[in-house]
Amino acid sequence: MSQFRAAFLVAANDFAGCTPLVLCWMLAFLPIVVVLALITSPLLAQNPPVPPPDESNYVGVDVCQGCHEDSYNSFMKSAHAATLKSKSAATRGCEGCHGPGAEHANAGGDPERIERYSGVKADVILARCGRCHDRDMGKPHTDAHLSCLTCHSPHHSRPRTPLLVKPAQELCRGCHATVPSLGAHR
């Protein structure tokens, strides 16, 4: 019996009640597990798992509501209100879009201490929305430096979904002289 197999069988004694058949299966799959570990360990070293956000930097929508009542009321009527069910503070409520609010709230509402959207470049807005949404606006829209907020408003949308700032026909025809079909947008 090889030393490797003997060592494995000794270690397998810890598995009380295992039959020889189970031990044979464990021996059969061990090389596969070892190979997978060797293949994935360099990948994990290059791309370590992202640590969860520091929950202490998040204050929750109740704190936001204290100063931003109108935005809160609008938010609660939007499709984004569903984010309140998120288990992660980083994707829940106002802070899901605007980032952690503790510094902002502790600084008396200092607008420089929260992620804002007015005056922000389109690629930054696309990255922020991309934290939850996986949408490709298409090259023509990206080349024109349009962002999600060109058409969508989480705070002041007309219909509940898809958070458009105007009815689809009116919105698209604002830039496009003719719109052959307004099916599902990219």
Report the structural category: mainly alpha
Largest sheet data: none
Low-confidence stretches: none
- Total number of domains: 3
Q: Care to count the β-strands? A: 0
**What's the tally of helices?**
10
H-E string: HHHHHHHHHH
SSE diagram, text form:
Elements: H1 3-12, H2 20-46, H3 61-67, H4 69-76, H5 93-98, H6 102-106, H7 122-129, H8 139-143, H9 148-151, H10 168-173
Helix pairs in contact: 3-4
Provide an overview of this structure.
The protein has 186 residues and is an all-alpha fold. The protein folds into three domains: 3-46, no CATH class; 55-113, no CATH class; 122-173, no CATH class. 46% of the residues lie in helices and 0% in strands. The chain contains ten helices and no strands. α3 (61-67) packs across α4. The longest helix is centred in the first third of the chain and has 27 residues, at 20-46. The chain is extended and about 70 Å long. The chain starts with a helix and ends in a 13-residue tail after the last helix. The mean pLDDT is 78.
